[in-house]
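We modelled the chain as a single entity of 232 amino acids. Its sequence is:
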Amino acid sequence: MLKAHILIVDDEEDIRELITYNLRKEGYEVTAVESGEKALSEVRNRPPELVILDLMLPGMDGLEVCRLMKASSRMAVVPIVMLTAKGEEADVVTGLEVGADDYVVKPFSPRVLLARIKAALRRRRLSVPTDDEVISAGELTLHPGTWEVTVSGKPVLLSNTEFRILHRLARRQGWVFTRHQMADSLQSDNAPVTSRTVDVHVCSLRRKLGPCGTYIETVHGVGYRFKDLSRE
């Protein structure tokens, strides 16, 4: 039985063949294309369960492909693993900011890439709580409907912004959110929100959550994520 359908987008034929070989050996169904334009056509016709996307492509580059996919309600749910030779911190941040779910730098280990793919597919298949669904993680519980948070059954008083940050992170456990993404999502508050403001709120949030403050992890140079407790 075939596993997930994965789309590979890379203009280097040998890279496409290497990834295709390793994925098919694991039972995945694979489609491989060499350009961003062909990638979007494939995704529109038959959305894959995951896309492996090179950044440096002829014509439309990988960042633009990612932006267009994430702007589409139909394609936005498809995880994107960027695979590129551009490995500077700024490149990683840019990739994550436009919507990539993970980032693998060339040259790469096929085994590591396969592990990242499996992790991204696993995260996608985990049910994501709705906006009003109670979230429980370890000793922490969030009640979005009443804006209540408890740690070990004891109430924790959070500000509006702190609650929204915690709720966004906890709904997508294991997902990395950049500081810019988090700041943009909070701009409806009265005061302007910057990346530095996010850091301050996260620091305060960790302190108020006590032992559960460790659930909020820093991804250095990028942003924050809520620890995926299901993997422990």
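As a brief sanity check on the tokenised model: The first helix runs from residue 13 to 25. Residues 135-231 form a domain with the Arc Repressor Mutant, subunit A fold (CATH 1.10.10.10).
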